[in-house]
Amino acid sequence: KISGIKIISNSETAGLGANSTKPEFYGQFKGKSINSPLKVVKGGNAKDNEIDAITGATITSNGVTDGVNEAVKFYASTLKGGENK
Predict the structure, then answer these.
(1) Whole-angstrom Cα distance, residue 37 to residue 50?
(2) Which of left, alpha, beta for 15 (phi over 0: left; psi -120 to 50: alpha)?
C-alpha cells in the first residue's frame, strides 16, 4: 500500500492546480494498493484504484497520479523486498 505522497513544490495556478498541495488531494493516495495502476476520475466517486481529479486541474491531477504510478513501478522492480535488480 502507498504510505503517502508529498508535493514538494509547484508553479500551478492558485485555486486550481495549486490545490495539489492540499491534503484533500494528496491524502487520497494514502492506503491505495500498489497492485494496479491508479487512474484519475471526475465526479467525487473514486473507487479503490482511483483518484478524484482536482476541479479545473485535470492535467495536474493526471500528472501527479502518473508520477505516483511511476514511483510504484520503480519500487516494485528495484526496491521491493530489498532487491536491487
Answers:
(1) 9
(2) left
What are the distances in angstroms from CA 20 to CA 77, 79, 85? Answer: 27, 27, 33
73, 47, 15, 61: CA torsion to nearest 10:
30
Measured CA to CA in angstroms, residue 7 lies from 17, 44, 60, 68, 77 at distances of 11, 21, 12, 11, 23
The residue ranges of every structural domain in the chain are 17-82
How far is 39 from 48, CA to CA, in rounded Å?
Answer: 10
* Neighbouring residues of 23: CB distance < 8 A, sequence distance ≥ 6: none
| Calpha distance 54→63 (Å, rounded) | 11
Quick: pLDDT tens for 41-83.
998 889 999 999 999 999 999 999 999 999 999 998 888 765 5
